[in-house]
Amino acid sequence: MQTIAVYHNLLPGGSRKALYDLLEILKDEYIIDLYQLTSSEDDFYNLDALVRKKNEFKYFPLLYKYFTNPYLYTPVLILDIFKIFITAKKVAKAINNNNYKFIFIHHDRYFQNPIISKYLQAPSVVFCQEPYRFFYEPYYDIDRKFGIVSRIAMACLYPFHQLLKWVGTIGIKHADILLTNSYYTREYIYKAYRRWSKVAYLGIKTSNYPHENMQVQNIVLSIGAINWKKKHDLVIRSVMLIDEDIRPQVKIIAPIIGNKKEQKRLETLAMQNKVKITIEEKVTHEILIKYYNSAIATICASIMEPFGIVALESMSCGTPVIAMNEAGYRETIIDGETGYLVDRSEAAIAEKILALRNDYELRQLMGKNGLEHVRKNWDWSKRKQEMLALIAREL
């Protein structure tokens, strides 16, 4: 078997889970050496068992961990740009000393697209989950909270933002092969970086997300990190519209809490509007499966989610999905058959929750359709061959 290198610098979350799944399919075809920075975290989907050896390189931003507001830490991160360039050269030098067929590169938790491809000799395969959204989309939360203060801050920090934005383009520019997760993201990447990518759909191992014959409870799920982009608050406000005597509980499952202030805001919002919520962090896989199987539905309310692996997991467990009619969700969910694609409004979400809650046969039918849809179209047994063929063809 030929040997490849894999590089990443990821936090716990969907991208980390996606990388784990990708390595599971790559290890059947290649021997894998892993290269990562010490700033990545290994307690969520640890990759050690999937690789021949792991090489770690010391890196952590000088002051990043002391700042939580992006308008404060952006200029601080400028101090670390030179450091990441130096570190990238060190990692690339170590990789270049080996005879790898190609180097598979995933996200960087700080700069989105790792710059290491600039210094590599072997072909680089860069998987871009999404552009650096902070620089290409309205930063809704800050704008809503601070208004004119936000606009003044943006104007003052514009030169810093442009520099960081430039850093994020380097890895894309020097990628020999650029892959992404959906046609929505493909268009987004072109708009951001003026470069076309190839769509390599992700999938799931459906045997890991089985349908279990469990009693459905009066619960809806909202899954994702505790930050404003995941829009857990929209789920809470939607459930608030349902009569209190039949109102479902909202169960929020997060790979990482991330933002304590946002957690407090969600808890306060729920309490003020008499919505029962629980927020759980880093639940085990077995418990997650039970939550999926026992919920009325999984609500996918994230803003412009580039792909949305949660929707596939839920459907694989036979649980319908209520998702926003936007971005990557439109490529995985069949509206009215495996779930619902709805407008971003509390009333629309509440209506579909009630439809599934009050009609057990409808929920069962949609669950069955979703399960069959994922097994047929989104299992890694299908996606694996397509991805490997794409990489081989492009190389």
Task: Please give a structural write-up.
The chain has 395 residues and is an alpha/beta fold. It folds into two domains: 216 residues, 3-Layer(aba) Sandwich (Rossmann fold); 170 residues, Rossmann fold (3-Layer(aba) Sandwich), CATH 3.40.50.2000. 43% of the residues lie in helices and 16% in strands. The protein is built from twelve helices and 13 strands. The strands form two sheets. The chain has a seven-stranded parallel sheet with strand order 3-2-1-4-5-6-7, sandwiched between helices. A six-stranded parallel sheet has the order 10-9-8-11-12-13, sandwiched between helices. Helix 5 links the parallel strand 6 and strand 7. It is globular.
Sketch the topology as an H/E string, one letter per element. Answer: EHEEHEEHHEHEEHEHEHEHEEHHH
How helical, in percent, are the residues? 40-55%
Proportion of residues in extended strands: 15-25%
**Mean pLDDT figure:** 86
Low-pLDDT stretches are none
Examine the secondary-structure arrangement and name the CATH architecture of the largest domain.
3-Layer(aba) Sandwich
Count of helical stretches? 12
Radius of gyration: 21 Å
Structural class: alpha/beta
The fourth-level CATH homologous superfamily of the largest domain is Glycogen Phosphorylase B
CATH class of the largest domain: Alpha Beta
Note the main sheet. 7 strands, parallel
Number of domains: 2
**Anisotropy-based shape:** globular
Q: How are the strands of the biggest sheet laid out side by side?
A: 3-2-1-4-5-6-7
Total strand segments: 13
From the N-terminal CA to the C-terminal CA, the straight-line distance is 17 Å
